Amino acid sequence: MRKNTFMTLTMGMALAAFTMTTCGEKKAEQTEQGEGAQTEQTTKKVAEKPADLKVYKSTDIQAQMANDAKNVGFDKSVLSTLDNMMEGNKSVEALYFDHKMNMIGTASFKNCTNLKEVHFDEVVDVIGDEAFAGCTSLKEFSASTSTYGLDAFKGCTSLTTVKMDDTGWKIR
User: Fold this and answer.
1) Is the overall model pTM greater than 0.85, yes or no?
2) Residue 114: which of 163, 64, 67, 63 has the closest Cα?
3) Closest CA relative to residue 105, chosen from 140, 63, 149, 73
4) C-alpha span between 72 and 130 (Å, rounded)
């Protein structure tokens, strides 16, 4: 019994030491890169919104919004998307979120096979289970997110890059 406890503690301490070393090395690299890298890191690139952007308000969503727009944005009154909100939509090609979102609901954009771009200008706390599953045209995804749901990107066969920052702490 004591041997197992000792091994568990030893492995735990080794993992903690590795994590601290890795974080320390990353911090040192950032310091060596100088002020230019820090400025680049803090400056966010805001996506240019197209002229034909359809912006939905929370009242539109509650009243069963028409899902036929190519470029879809959400008003600041929309703090989370509904579960299965645009599931299977073949029209939408780009999504724009220019404010903090609490949650992208479960399967909100599942099987939106023509969805190519998703732009988050601010933090989204939670990306729900299967939120973007089956989005076969989605190539790159970047978000400041604390939790990624189960199978959030399952079946995204064109997805080559997922960028996460330091806020990501839970991936189911």
Assistant:
1) no
2) 67
3) 149
4) 19
Residue 165 and residue 107: Cα distance in Å, rounded?
23
Instruction: Encode pLDDT of 15-63 as tens digits.
Output: 333 333 334 444 444 444 444 444 444 445 677 888 889 998 988 877 7
Distance of CA 116 to the CA centre of its chain: 14
